[in-house]
Amino acid sequence: MRETCRQNVRTLSHKLASGRVGPYDRCVRLTRCPRCLAEDISADAHPTRRLVNATPVTFFVCRDCFRAAELEFQISCESSNIGYARLPIRESLRLLRGFYQDRLGESPDDGRVTEALQEVERRLLIGPVERASKLDA
Q1: Of 45, 48, 63, 61, nearest to 117 (Cα)?
Q2: Which of 10, 51, 65, 82 has the fewest CB atoms within 10 Å, measured from its CB?
């Protein structure tokens, strides 16, 4: 696979020099949404959970499947008498960072994944907002 990718990169560099580049001339790995199998979530993933043997397990879906997957998780928690709580934002960001780092390891030349990882890192650097005292208002 790596050798094929290197050959594609050499071919792409020749096409770039001649100005003959199409939209699908990159060798990048696609990660499909496990719910719909239609969307590439390599650079636009959303963490959600599902119950596996009464244990919450995290997985990643596309933007279109996120609400439905979270609702399914909520319903399965209620039917299994397990307390449902939304996934905290900072935990979601940490999960996304790991997901994008894995994708970047597989496709280091994919600019979309690099941008997504940088955005997650930027958001993680922002501290939580503290509540203002009612006296300060």
Answers
A1: 45
A2: 10
